[in-house]
Amino acid sequence: MPVRAEDVVLPATWEGSVPEYLTYQALQRAGKRPGFDFTYQSPLLGGRMQKGGMIIDFEFFDPPDLSINVQGVYYHYEFGVETSARDKIARAQLAGEGITLIFIDEDDLLNDADYYVTEALRYRDHSRLGSGR
Question: Which CATH class is domain 16-131?
Answer without folding.
Answer: alpha beta
